[in-house]
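Much of what follows relies on a compact textual record of a protein's fold. A complete example follows; check for yourself that the lines match position by position.
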Amino acid sequence: MMAASLLRRDKKATAAHLKADLNRTDNCAGARQLQELLDTVLNPETPATDTEALDWCKCLIAGGDGFDEFCKTVRSYDNATLCGLVWTANFVAYRCRTCGISPCMSLCAECFNNGDHTGHDFNMFRSQAGGACDCGDSNVMRESGFCRRHRLKTGENVPSVPRELLLMSEMVLPRFIISVIQYLREGYTEPGEVTDSGSERDLQKVLQQLEPQISFLEELTKMGGAMRTVLTKILTNQQTFKDLSMGQEGSPYAKQNYEKYLSALKNSGLVSVEEKALPASAESPAGEEEATGALASSGAAAAGSPEEASKEEDPDGGQALGQRKRVKLSSTTKDTSIMDSLKHKCFLEELLFWTIKYEFPQKMVTFLLNMLPDQDYKITFTKTFVQHYAFIMKTLMKSHESDTMSNRIVHISVQLFSNEELARHVTEECQLLDVMVTVLLYMMESCLVKSELQDEEKSRHVVVNCGEALLKNNTYWPLVSDFINILSHQSVAKKFLEDHSLLMLWMSFVSFFQGMNLNKREMNEHVEFESQTYYAAFAAELEACAQPMWGLLTHCKVKETQEYTKTVVRYCLEALQLWFDAIGFVDEPAPNQVTFHLPLHRYYAMFLSKAVKCQGLDLDSLLPDQEMLMKIMVHPLQIQASLSEIHSNMWVRNGLQIKGQAMTYVQSHFCNSMIDPDIYLLQVCASRLDPDYFISSVFERFKVVDLLTMASVHQNALLDSEQERPMLEGALTFLVILTSLRLHLGMTDDEILRSEMVSQLCMNDRTHSSLLDLIPENPNPKSGIVPGSCSFEEMLSAVADFKAPVFEPGGSMQQGMYTPKAEVWEKEFDPIMVVLRTVYRRDVQSAMDRYAAFLKQSGIHTGNPWPPYKERSPLHPSYKGLVQLLHCKTLHIVIFTLLYKIWMDHQNMSEHVLCMVLYLIELGLDNQDQEHKEEEEPCIEEHCHDSWFPGTSLLSNLHHVINFVRVRVPETAPEVKREPPPSTSTEATSFGPASRRLSGNWRENLREAQVFSLVAERRRKFQEIINRSSTEASAQVVRPKSSSTRWVPPGTPPQLVTEILEVRESMLSLLIKLHQKLSAKQNSLPAGWLEEAAAAKAAAAAGGGPADAGRHTHGDGITAIERILTKAAGCSRHSQRSIQEICGKVCPPVPPKKSSPADKKTLDKEERRTRARERQQKLLAEFASRQKSFMETAMDVESPDGEAAMDLGLTELMDSEILYDCVICGQSGPSTEDRPTGLVVLLQASSVLGHRCKTGEAKKLPTSDEEHIYAADTCGVAHDLRLALMQRFFRESSCLQSVSIGWDGGVYVQTCGHTLHIDCHKSYMESLRNDQVLQGFSVDKGEFTCPLCRQFANSVIPCRPGPGLEAGAWHCPSNKKPSVLVKEVEDLQGLMAPFPTVSNLSKEMELVIKDIKNTTQKKYMDYGKNPGSPDNDFLFMYSVARTNLELELVHRGGHLCSGGASGAAKRSCLNQLFQVLATHMRLYSIDSAYNPWTRLTQVTKSQLEEGPEVDRREVAMLFRDVPSLLIIFVLTMPQPLRKEHFTCVVKMLYNLQFVQALAALSAQFSPEERQAWSTSGTPKKNAANGEKCFEALLSHVISELSSDEKIYRLNAAEPTVLSSSVWSPQSIEFSLRQFCLPYLRIASLLQHHLYGDVLTECLQEDEFWTLVVGLGLLAPGPQTPGSSSSPVPSASCLEWPGVSAFQLVTQWCEELKGLPETQAEHTLELVPFRSPQTLLVQDPQWGAPRLLQLPDNYNILFQYYHRKACSACQKVPKDPALCLVCGTFVCLKGPCCKQQGTCECVLHSQHCGAATGIFLLINASVIIIIRGHRFCLWGSVYLDAHGEEDRDLRRGKPLFLCAERYRVLEQQWVSHTFDHINKRWGPHYNGL
């Protein structure tokens, strides 16, 4: 066989041969050969894992060339103008709103960075579902935003593709694709079906096997436009599909394979269209019958009812949840073909089918998307996608991984539907809108249940069940999001709005949500299980109903679209009418149930609002009849009342979730789709319905009708008494909101934005992002555009001031905040808007507190202010009817009753009630009803027997006097009693004859008395008007209203009796009496009050200044009443007269006993305060005396012979002992051997010193591959090298005393300065151990917080008993000769340390040493060759002292010029630390033979004779580190050391330091300069002061060292450090001083701590002199130090120890000679590190420790590091992090880089910072600190333009370095205060 021979040949050769054949004109033979070869190669029966086939395809396609070469060639013909890069979840992309046309536009980083987006509104985001780059697509973004590459239309200049290049591809790929499809068919098994091998289905496995094939397809798409064109041809060619999809004729495998495909189609409840009609034309007749039979039956089922099919597949869905039974609808689907027919005509369609079947595998999705830049493909693919839309939905509903699948679906659909052109095309051609609405309906129909709203038995309404997985898991969101996406295109939305049948379908979809998640109030038991379904319900309403609504509203903004609005409104009303009928609603809502979900109401409301606001439609033309309006208002009103009930704790038995619903309903993301439309709808109803009916309905819904009686006692059938007050407040507040809110009643968008912003800012200062988040977004939430987006910033700057981010002393970092401007508080603070927008009640209080603080601060009002009254913008003419509410008798009766009740102090009244009542009165005065404008002066009293008030105008009713009121009261009420009323009512009647029982003329008064049953009558009347037909009306009247609460219940229980109260008050008189009551003055308003007020006002107006305005708008109740009276007087003369009359009748003085409770309260307040103060002081005094007596007894117990001690005279005791206070037991006393006191300290290992560099400059963080950081120049590395070099040539023990370690991993000790008894501390630790609540630190590791200041600590350093620093004897200056002192020092060193006696103190000392050693890691302690040796220990101990001194120096800024004590002397624990170290180090004796002191001060015999073989020699004196020697000497001598001895040591070591400086300097000279200096200095040697003259000494050093020529030769190899061109005496003098300064600083600090010497302040240039004088090296001379005239040379401070200076110098220089020179000749470049001679040059100066210098723009850093591979594992880490100390790139939490269970960040922190690490998390922009076993989030040093952090880069706005914060971070690092400043620490368990 031909194919077999081909197979045996080399693949490349075969391919080339076939290609040549095919290129001939007659290519049949070649084609046949190729097909045969492919039949064999792509045999579907070989397993997919066999890669042979893939290799063949690659070779064949490449036609004999290498595949990579071929790819390159094809790419060169790439003509694509789009980027089209496809990415998956978690990819970082960009979105620019300035350039985007579609809100979903996105760019890859490369295109974004290559485009110009400066000044644009862009953000970076982490892709949730995946996406593709839109660069180059002008349908989605503006061309100005294209990047450089896609801006040039690259397609034009690309040469056309040679035919033969892709010829093989065209032949081979169709076969390759069908083979992939065949594998997919073969591998698929239905869920639950068991395969032949008996295993459950494993789709993942099949996909894994196909991985290489699909990846190959993906690779092809990346070859560019030319290859994509070929693929498109193949994928969309129907003929090829026909030929190949059945497989080869006669092959049983292929037939079986095709049947698998058909059965998969069938099982999906899908069937292809023709197959319904005609039998499939299969090859074999037998097969034909089977197929037809099976298909026919399934077709019948499918056609019958698509729902049935899907129901049966999922039997366990509804019932398993134990919920209400699902309801099945008869199919509402318009067109069954949408749901259940699919026909595949090309590869693309079948590929998509399998992609869906396999639940959207990522690789397939990427392949399908990679093809999109090809326009033909894009159109075909979109149509195919729409064709499969229903199938996608079914698969999604059954999927177990619906989240992942949703993301993948949206990944595809967003690319297709964001393009308006394409969306319109598909809408026209494929009925996209019909498909979507039908699919959504179908989807929701799967989870419907019967509604329980209203009449549960008769209800025909069905709602979605929020407990279903479909809603709970948001499974519907991909489909809804597609729908919202296409509605954002105007052309598509218009199609939708024009298609009436679609609108009707959509309304029926919306009505599924109407009334879902019904809450029933639990009356008896607390609910067992709190369902959390409300999340699902709110999300569903927002996403599935509100967002499409906002989408449609965006296209109904102009007059031309009036028709659309009318249509929507019409269908809304129809749907509402259907809903009312379905739930059987007549006129009363069912009691105790509420649903927050009324999307139909809200659609209706929002379209009404738009119609009036934007389209100029007449409101009345869109409203239904009165009866329908009355129905519409019921449910929104029910919600408002329920909100109040929930806040009054009436729903408390329903659990917390009901509060959650009440909060979500008003929360910023929901409010403009929920509460705002509801309130607007109620406003519309109120403006069109009878106001009395409306007001009475409100009070009835709020259940406070029974409360509104003049009687002092009443019965309320519905509320407990503690619920009455909040419910009444709620009802009144609601009325105020209803009558004063103007959001949809005439405010412009800008005014709305302004008031929203002001109300949010008044509650709290806000960051920019939280403000953006809190302001309800208008329309499309996806666009993220606030209406008039440009004006958001302008508005913000108009109403608020920016407070830059600051640091609080505690170290917590503030973000940049916005705070309201003063004039906003003064003129715009609107408490009503605040109440409407607060989620938590405490926010209202917060706003009021801030308002009060502002008034106090600006001196406007000092007391407790009431919420200010704010004038409202005028109403839109359409809503003028709303004013009637304020002018209706019912409201006036309520107001009158409440004023009376408050004045009479009835129960359950409050300040808030009065405040709201006054607000309503004032609103009424400000909004006069037009009809009642004329003055109603003549008012005939006779007419008002039947009603309380003559008319409806508030103005005229204000002064109307009401004489008698008839009330129904229980017999027990005080009003009923015939005897004189008891005390309760006498108190209440203090203001006049209020509630006296009238016995005599009772009958006549009855006629006049007002009855408050009016409302019930009015409602009955009103119903008669509505129900036109009389029969219905009578039925209505007779029907006893089950749920309504009557104003006067008809079947009253017998104990209620009717009484008549004599009132004789008007609203005005009540107001004036309340004014007196509030101000607690009898005649608070004198008769002439009004004239004065008017005159003041006039004066203010004339002066042109609003002097009085402030006083009147801001204030308390008194101000409010005055304001109302003034307004009333200004509006009508009659009111003015009444006010004057009432003020004129000055009330009689009141007997003091009977003052009203309110009066009592105010009078008592002051008195109570003073009493409280006295009580408090008494208590304090008593407490102090108790404490004192306790202390005395306690001290007695301590020392029985206390008296004797006292007699000795306290003075001596004071002198000699330091007293310490124990912060635990509070006693004060000295530290003793037996009961030592300790200092609370924190020991921590530190590498800060080791990270210092020579320059004080910070190193730059690399942000490209070219930049690097070198660590070799740090202090730690330099010292390590030095020690290692010494150890190679000198004796170990000597090396370990010649340097200090602890630059890396040294132990730093700090204290808070508090002391405690060590035994107290132990018991404190025990109590901490038992108290496990403290999670912040680990008690087992000895950690605790200071009991007094709560500072973190982990050890206690014992204080030595003994005299304080001031003890004079140690201080006296001595006049001994130097040589004497030198001898004394030597003797002191020779003294053996007395072995310490074992006492509590010595035990504690040992423990502290142990703590110190445990603080750092082993590797930082063992520098010797044999770890743990005494020498090693000794080195570690004195290095601790060195580390602490050096760090203190760093904290002082690296010098001692500022003088004084460091930060706080009390905080220094160095003195105690030295004592502990000294005690420990005295245990080691220094071998006198090797004591450096002798070599420092005496000329000794040369030791060279012994020869180096015997033992390595001592380290040369000139190589030793002088400060280390100083510390060793001080710590090994007996303590306390006399100051004279200390000074002597300092002097001797200065000599050595000076000579070292000369030697180091001379090594930097050129040989010529050395020669010159040597000769010029020689004569000076013999001068009198030769020993104190640097020239002489320098010349001596040079001549000594030159005798061994290696010394200078080897050192010259090192680059010169201070290479000044010529060395002048001045520059040498300067260098010497600089060289000696570090030593002098350490010595001065040591002296300061040991002897308490004060450090003097000085200038930088005088530091040397100040220190020298302070240390006693130089007597303070008359001349000022460093004065320019005669600076003292540094050499003059030398003082030689009675031995010739030159001899000593010679001796020191001799030690350098004859040192071996190692490998110097061979490896030249390493010379400086190899030869011991190079130890001569040391530069003790180091810069300050600095963190790395970061780039200003975070994006630079992010782009480089977030894709950078980890150096350890070569993968890109999921959470990359950067060490800010050394720049190392590490994986946070990465399992790849774990070592022994410790993750990389923790490991690095141990290695780089001795367990302190500072890491910047690249993907989160935050910094974490690792300290030992704990870590904390520090915050971010990158802030956006508004001074805000962006943790986790959620907002993705550009971030910039905040230098201030970075400085603070660096400061905390250097000062080791992370533990104290950051409070939130947690254990990291080595997992970072």
